[in-house]
Amino acid sequence: MTMPAPPGDRNPVDRESTSRNPWGSQPSGPSASHGPWYPSQAPQARNGMGVTALVLGIVGVVLGLAVVLFWMSWLPALLALVFGFVGLAHCRKGVATNRGMALTGVILGAAGLLIAVGGGVFSVLLVKDAAEDARAEIAEVRASAAAEAEKEREKEKARHLSFGEAYTFENGLKVTVAKPEPFTPDSLVYGHAKGNKAVQVTVTVVNTSAERLSVETGLPSVNDANGASTELVIDGSGRQKVITGYVLPGKEAIGKYAFSLPPDAADKIEVEFSPDSKRWPDAYWSGPN
User: Fold this and answer.
1) pTM greater than the 0.85 cutoff
2) Helix or strand or coil: residue 167?
3) Which of left, alpha, beta for 200 (phi over 0: left; psi -120 to 50: alpha)?
4) How far apart are the first and last CA of the chain?
5) Coil, strand or helix: which one is 285?
6) Residue 97, SS3 per DSSP
7) Helix, strand or coil for residue 124?
8) Which end of the chain is more exposed for a tag (fewer CB within 10 A), N or C?
């Protein structure tokens, strides 16, 4: 006959299994957790403003240092300041962690703006100086042109003389045209019509230089005060003499020429002469005939 086990000898496992109710409420505490425990995730830092400020500040400074692109640096530099201050505000609020980047962006933005302003002022001064130099150069050119024109007028005025006055050409030939004298042609004459008035023009050429000089065009041209040309008179008297060849230093050559004026010619005539018309412009002698 089997004796039942006393209550104190019952198996502990059996007691635990019989005392746990799977359908009852679970005890509170760590033993009630069915998986590992994780802490809650921290919010993501808002560092974009600081990064943008740094990049724009670098761009502004680089553009400002470029000689031809400094005028473009003000915009990225200004944006770097704006984004940098916003990034610093985020750092103060604790939502951003890149305070150094934001501060560097602000510094570079300020430097870019200063470079842009300095470049603008320098450009304005440079353009102003260039404009003043251009105006001064234009004024100098105008003054030079006016002086040259006045010089040419003086030269032109100097080439207009009265009979008996001397004019020295640039090669050193000193020319004098005497007042025309009446001329009576020989019976055998060419270039003088009956009723015309004939005059003789005397041209004296003196070589004032130290070398011999040639007279390439020793024939003068004669017109009256109204611009009417005259006829060269050639007769058999042998009184006409044309200046040709060379004139030695210190020597003179004399040419005599006769011209026929129409009956209605003006009382005043003008004689043109140049020792070399290809090199020297004519000088003019005028006065009553």
Assistant:
1) no
2) strand
3) beta
4) 192
5) strand
6) coil
7) helix
8) N
Query: Taking CA 210 as the corner, what is the angle to CA 204 and CA 212, rounded to the nearest 5 degrees?
Result: 60
Query: Which two tokens mark 12?
Result: 């502990």
117-147 burial, b if ≥16 CB within 10 A, otherwise e?
eebeeeeeeeeeeeeeeeeeeeeeeeeeeee
Which tokens go with 56? Answer: 């724009």
DSSP assignment of 26-40 equals PPPSGGG--S---PP
Q: Name the token pair of 168.
A: 């020295």
Cα separation, 75 vs 117, in Å, equals 12
In the block, which residue shows the tokens 């209605």? 264
Helix 99-158 to helix 74-93 angle (10° resolution) is 160
- In tens digits, the chain (289 residues) has pLDDT values of 444 545 554 444 444 444 455 444 445 544 444 445 445 555 677 888 989 989 988 998 888 887 677 778 888 889 999 999 998 998 998 888 889 998 998 999 899 889 888 888 888 898 899 999 999 999 999 999 999 999 989 988 999 999 999 999 999 999 999 999 999 998 888 888 888 999 999 999 999 999 999 998 768 999 887 877 788 999 888 888 999 889 999 999 999 999 999 888 878 899 999 998 888 899 999 998 7
Helix axes 48-65, 99-158, angle to 10 degrees: 20
CB 60 within 8 A of CB 73: yes
